[in-house]
Design brief:
The structure is a single chain. This protein has 270 residues and is of the alpha+beta class. A five-stranded antiparallel β-sheet has the order 8-6-5-11-10. A four-stranded mixed β-sheet has the order 2-1-4-3. The chain has a two-stranded antiparallel sheet with strand order 7-9. A hairpin with a 5-residue loop joins strand 3 and strand 4. Helix 4 packs antiparallel against helix 5. The longest helix has 14 residues. The protein is elongated, with a radius of gyration of 23 Å.
Length: 270
């Protein structure tokens, strides 16, 4: 169970009652924190203080009627709207307030007529590999005084394929290369925008930054600013995105018991 508390130090317990604009909903902490990087997730993981109404329910001053669709999305990873639903703009505004990015993507697909179950079904494959390289470089010690140095670096390559272009676009936004002029977002690696190939080389402490850049190496970091030091860190971030998007792990290679250190993963979404 999550250990979080409201502004008065009171810890929520399952089931959780939430008063949203006068509408009271009962759910679980697991549902409310399904998207940990959302504002709703932050509210119920102790990052944002919570208010309570007079009956002890947690209170959020937002539209209560459309919150039911947000809550149901978090429960089932599916946007289920009644036929003739006319408050899509309001729902989009509320999803934007709570910063539930997968739901926002679903709403955009619904706006363009792509919100059917057949469009939602998707397969996601990812594989990683790495190789060690030895660099030789001159380290300047003084005027006309150079010392020959050697350093080992590791090149990481992650190849992602997804039948949903929206997911590839989402992943492109979740990672960025570190460059002198600022972050550079990766781009799909084929015309159909179903593939993404990421290559990065973490800079070791013993290698000067200018030498790292001189060899054309780039570091990779997440949207939150965390540098990816190895393929395990990449798999962890990809798992976070995939599960939040409604995917489930279908196969792990080579060892299902060590998912973060695996070299290949396959996800499916129905």
């Amino acid at each position: 169970m999550l250990n979080t508390s409201d502004g008065n130090g009171n810890s929520p317990q399952d089931p959780v009652s939430v008063n949203v604009g006068g509408e009271v909903y009962t759910t679980t902490l697991d549902t409310l924190t399904r998207c940990r990087d959302s504002m709703l997730g932050a509210m119920f993981t102790g990052q944002i203080p919570l208010l309570r109404d007079r009956r002890g329910n947690f209170f959020i001053d937002r539209d209560g009627k459309v919150f039911r669709y947000i809550l149901n999305y978090l429960r089932s990873n599916s946007l289920d709207l009644p036929e003739g639903f006319k408050e899509l703009a309001l729902l989009k505004r509320e999803a934007d307030f709570f910063q539930i990015r997968p739901l926002l993507d679903e709403i955009r697909r619904h706006e363009t007529g792509g919100g059917t179950a057949s469009c939602r079904a998707a397969m996601l494959n990812v594989s990683t590999e790495s190789e060690m390289r030895v660099l030789h470089f001159n380290l300047k010690r003084g005027p006309e005084n150079y010392e020959l140095r050697s350093c080992a670096v590791r090149l990481y390559v992650a190849t992602v394929f997804c039948t949903s272009r929206v997911v590839i676009e989402l992943l492109c936004a979740r990672f960025s290369y570190v460059a002198r002029d600022g972050p550079v977002l990766p781009q799909p690696s084929n015309a159909r925008q179903n593939c993404l190939c990421l290559e990065w080389v973490p800079c070791p402490d013993e290698l000067p930054r200018d030498q790292h850049q001189k060899h054309g190496f780039r570091e990779l970091r997440t949207e939150s600013g965390t540098d990816l030091r190895d393929s395990r860190a990449f798999m962890e971030e990809l798992l976070r995105v995939a599960l939040c998007e409604g995917f489930r792990v279908d196969s792990v290679f080579p060892d299902p018991s060590d998912i973060l250190n695996c070299s290949a993963l396959r996800f499916v979404r129905y």
